[in-house]
Amino acid sequence: MSKEVEVLSSVKWPKDISLPVALTFEMQSGEGAPRLPGDRPNFMVGGTLEYGARTGIWNILELLSDRHLTATFFVCGTTALAYPKAVRAIADAGHEIAGMSFGFDRVRTMASDRERDMVKRTVKTLEDATGQRIKGWRCPDYRVSVNTLDILCEQGFEWDSSLLNDDSPSLYQCASGTLIEIPFTTSTADKTFVGYPYPQRGGPDGLEDAWNSEFDVLHEESAGVSRYMILSLQTWAVGRPAPLRSLNHFIENVSQRNAVRFVTCRSISQWSRSA
């Protein structure tokens, strides 16, 4: 079983970076929608989630292009099959593609052989869609099994971002090697502020305020200890007009700070390994 061996709180970022900021976008197309009684499709929730792959992704890609930024996109395998042009556009724009299960699979109680097969299937589907061999992963709804990190390391992954337990990366020893864990937080997740049909708390303005407050604290702390900021964003939530405007405002604010750079999760992983 995988075991955490070191919290990389003293990792050294490149000299021109005091605080890396990673924008991570989770992209599904309704796979996570709960079914109605009788196994009927839930068109209200499913349609809300599908927006991200149909429309939200194009809004986000346009914003990132305008800002000349590179981000990490966690994509479900079934989404890549249903929306191949959108997923290919992400890769063609130079963004990092990472995995987020095949069909929004919840692996917490899944048998290890079944979880391994799901990971392999997702890897192949995303590689077929983008021409890229993915190196990173996030479990849907952050529900990790006791086998997840071992399976990812065994399958050649470099990093995971499913845990919520720290402000620093961690090094895990797995059965077949080592894996970098890049923790994040749900306190700044867009869906909790603006994600209909989930309960909203503050709307786009509240979301922007949370992002700016989190950034200010981490930026101040980065003067004395290694810190990074990572946002968990849903293409179906932040891809809508009002939240997207809040994201644009946040990017504009951060871009004005010295020694702050938007990076991918893979960059954080590579810098962490060289610590």
Features:
about 280 residues, 5-stranded mixed sheet, 5-stranded parallel sheet, alpha/beta, TIM Barrel, 10 strands
What would you say about this model in short?
Helix content is 41%, strand content 17%. With 275 residues, it is α/β, with parallel strands linked by helices.
Binned strand content: 15-25%
Order of strands side by side in the largest beta sheet? 1-7-8-6-5
Residue-averaged pLDDT, rounded?
A: 93
Any idea of the CATH class?
Alpha Beta
Structurally, the number of domains stands at: 1
The number of distinct β-strands equals 10
Sheet of most strands: 5 strands, mixed
How many helices? The count is 9
Note the gap between the termini.
24 Å
Overall structural class, as computed from helix and strand content, comes to alpha/beta
- Radius of gyration, in angstroms, nearest whole number: 18 Å
The unreliable regions are none
Net shape: globular
The CATH superfamily name is: Glycoside hydrolase/deacetylase
Order of helices and strands: EEHEHHEHEHEEEHHEHEH
